[in-house]
């Protein structure tokens, strides 16, 4: 029996501009995360994936919709409970250099959240710090306690960031491009630690990335959400979304991922324009239509909504509901 | 028989860091041939970008080319050239595409005026040059007229990078260095840029060196790949050989640590430990502290460069005995 620990319903976030229409960073997004579950959120820059991550981590106010953590609606609880709830969702940033205060030792960085949790005695703090460092693979812990962030590599810093997040016993980790700045040889080590922590503590993980191959690798048994221009355009189990994409945009993203195997060329699907989407757009119509080689009149005149295609696999595309294979469709065009 | 266009021999580059001197590039030799694209793969601090900046004679003030040769077939060894001499060949014989597209161009000039400056600096007829630039821009699937009348900020990162590539190619240099040209781009823009590089590669006799930390990006694009680790070139081989039959443990582990979108799931493993600081290098082989196949001698002596064939070499004591094992990592 899985229980929903994080539920976002119909979340929207607008940024007002002077004398210009507002920018919709996130539009009507739903997301539900169970404990122990992984959801990958993929999209390009400007797709709203990071904004969504910061909203569900409780650090960015939003304009519409509701956010509930462990069944409590954040807008309906008092400040004290709200703090505790938001604490149970921890955000891991992309840049481990900016995320740690350079003036504090690793020991101090980990002591502050423990103090905030009411762990104050020096012995207890020392003990917890040791546990935390060991659980992220910084062993022996004593070697790191008195070090400053500048003395650590990017990978080691990201481990400290993970340890700090763990200090407050979170239920959810929101990892926003958490390994993008880490050297390739060490990425899998960090991801391995995150997976282990997930098993050990039943953590739900929202894994935000622009890298489809990485999403597939990390969330292989979980869900994947694809975002475009602030909206979810496709979601389902990771294997379904990546192996049998229903939205042409997802198919294009997948086709554009280079493979380590030199004999594998990239796929053939490409957008017809490299224009980035207009985020101020409020009129009807699919926001991907201007770049979509398969767009028909309907796509321009009405906005497709996210509808279930098979079971959990949903897509927001008028043409996908007809069950077309995009790769085949594109071959037809060529010949 | 393909002709050698550029020969880098035993190149050593040092940086002054506080009172210390560290070797960012240590005894690297590499040869580029006409019409060939060579990938240069390595993690941050491996010296791959420093190598390119040294080849362009664009090292920052703390950096110094200590020894070695950078020989272009057309003009000879340029490693000791003065700046006035160098500026005659830079862009003309050897050019570079940079990672940060926002700093490639002058923000207060239109692209047309920047192309004109480039032609004038090299004594080329501006009108003829612009005709060539337009022709190349056409290949990038951008509207040449719109691009030339634009300021850099009016273009997206992916568009700027495509123009950057045209800028580096328009004088028909012998060698084009591409330093992480797609790293700052989104997946779809990256794809367009990679397609453009592939297309242009088939149109030119220039040799290209494509520097990246991401093996996947060059694997389907390159004829050969070199792998750098902590300032050393540790392996160089034809791409498919390098991927299927890596001879250096680092190559094997690195290429297997990259997730794939097409293959069946495999549990990927990272490489234990972390790259060394250049100011605190381990004795012997620099990879030895992280190497699962390490032996006593690896910690004592630096493995020499072993030439396996004309196309392939590796710096590992154990390559001949490990070959089969590494192919199955």
TrEMBL record, chain B:
Single biological process term from Gene Ontology: peptide transport
Protein name, entry field: ABC transporter domain-containing protein
Family: Belongs to the ABC transporter superfamily.
Sample GO molecular function, one term: ATP hydrolysis activity
Keyword Cytoplasm: no
GO CC list: plasma membrane
Domain of life of the source: Bacteria
CDD domains: ABC_NikE_OppD_transporters
Domain ABC transporter: from-to ranges: 6-255
Originating organism: Sulfobacillus benefaciens
Compartments where located: Cell membrane
Keyword RNA-binding recorded: no
Membrane topology reported for the UniProt record: Peripheral membrane protein
UniProt xrefs under SMART domains: AAA (SM00382)
Database matches in InterPro entries: AAA+_ATPase (IPR003593), ABC_Ni/Peptide_Import (IPR050388), ABC_transporter-like_ATP-bd (IPR003439), Oligopep_ABC_C (IPR013563), P-loop_NTPase (IPR027417)
Main location: membrane
Gene3D superfamilies found in the cross-reference section: P-loop containing nucleotide triphosphate hydrolases
Keywords, sorted A to Z: ATP-binding, Cell membrane, Membrane, Nucleotide-binding, Transport
PROSITE patterns: ABC_TRANSPORTER_2 (PS50893)
